[in-house]
Amino acid sequence: MADGTRRVRVAPLTRLLAPEHRLDLLQVVKAVLATVAAWLVATEVLGLQSAFLAPWTALLTVHATVYRSVWRGAQSVAATGLGILLSFAAAVTLGFGALPMGLAVLVGLLVARAPGLRTEGVTVATTALFLLTSGSGDEPVLLLHRFADTLVGVLVGIVVNVLVVPPLDAGTAERSLVRVSEGLGALLRRMAHDVTHGAADLGQDASREWIAETARLDADLDRAENQLVTNREARWYNPRRRRGPDPDRLEEARRGLEEAITQTRAAARVVDRSTEQAHEWDEGFRERWTRLLDGLGARLAHAEEDTHVLGSDVADEVADLVSTLSASDLPDRHWPVYGALLIAVRELAGAVDAAVGESDARPPDAGQRQTQDQESSAAQ
Known about the structure:
The radius of gyration is 30 Å and the shape is elongated. The chain is mostly helical. α5 (about 100-110) runs antiparallel to α6 (about 120-135). It is built from 14 helices and no strands. It folds into two domains: about 1-165, no CATH class; about 175-380, Four Helix Bundle (Hemerythrin (Met), subunit A). It is found in: Cell membrane. It is a multi-pass membrane protein. InterPro entries: ArAE_1. One of its GO terms (cellular component) is plasma membrane.
């Protein structure tokens, strides 16, 4: 009981110390630092009016990537400048009141649709609205101070995000891809086991569970793809951009896994249809096909035993299987099923090559993988 309680208490702490959570906590600290620094610069150094805008803008400028901080910060400055000009023009020409306020908001919202301002575009309208309702839309000095406050906040936010451990979550996408690879490998090995040991009474429940599992793996791979996009963006303008795994290699692995999941689903559906039609397995075909499937699964799952197979091995085995089956007295009704399964495993082998590397016939040993994990965490 005590051990179970300890595990429950330790688990949240373990999740909190995961690299992706450490990065989130670091960004929180940086946002606080940028907020305080912008306030001090605006009040103690420059003595600006409306100084609250500087920390407010700095807080909103510390984003998950340096590129996003620069891009969104530039949009904030441009939108604030346009809002100030819009409020000044409305106040000087039409004065204050409902009509100029409505026209300024209308124009501001239309300007916000511009391609370069879409993310922060509503700031044009809100800035004009605030200045006109506060009665300061025609005071040039106050308007300049407001613009300067925004500029200070953006610059401080960008500087803090760039200089204080620039965000680069290099390992999250890689770890997600490894989990998908290992999950797919385990599925392939389970399929091989089920077909080998349950060929006589293999039901549709098993094959449909395989198909459902490929859908779950697809969802996990979609999340990994989003992480890859963020990882690639995080390298732009980032002094630490050379750290971590090569994003091009990770993208190649993602595409390989995507194709591997597709071919696994195709094989599962063929088995599902053959089960529905009560096809009996040819013993020779079943033994050799499941051995290929298990070998590919072992390679994806980074299993330690010597069952790994490469794409070239599979291609040779498929050709030999076709030749053997052609010479045997195989019923015609089996050919569509076996042909589809052979095509699926051949394409699956090529996808596995892309996912884990053509020469990666053996996984690194446990010590090497632990060292790689430690280096990845240290790089972050």
